[in-house]
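BUG: 3D viewer hangs when loading the predicted structure for this chain

Environment: internal workstation, default settings.
Expected: structure renders.
Actual: progress bar stalls at 90%.

Input used:
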Amino acid sequence: MSKDIYRLPDLAYDYAALEPHYSARTLELHHSKHHATYVKQANETLDRIADRRGAAPDPLIARGLRKALAFNVSGHLLHSIFWTSMTPGGSELADGTLSAAIDADFGGMDNLKKEMGGAVAGLQGSGWAALSWEPLARRLLVEQIYDHQSNMTPGQLPLLVIDGWEHAYYLQYQNDKAAWVDAFWNVANWSPAQIRFDNAVASHLEPAFA
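Structure tokens produced before the viewer hung:
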């Protein structure tokens, strides 16, 4: 059984720690209900896939299970990155490799923030904005992720993400996505993004056809 393969991560701070920028009630519901559901459904989907091994192929069932697995596992992954993308009081990005890459690929932090905000504002429905490392071009990109798993380049690694689903902000900011994005930057945590960036750059080899 796969019930323990995916687990809800503990937060490094309590539910009230990000106030007033992110309310305790919003964070509690988001973490303990929404994220927990993705974890539960990811594990249940793996069990259903395992139960069907050896059975006669049914393309419709297989397609539905694979889509459910992608949706829930990606939701689990993105939320796990999201919690570490925030910290009480926020943290500034120190001069270093990630800061230099942001300057080179976006022309500075202000431009990156505008592009991330535009990605959230332009979502048609639910989704995310992600600052990602794209290994083919070996550069940073801002990606707009629909739902949890679509419209992403293969092999990319999200470094810092903003949740644009309504459940992430509506209780506190209602339909004002821009206010939510502005609030996010007050609690943004750049230290894990720096670590992810350095690990990504070090681990990805040049494409074989380059």
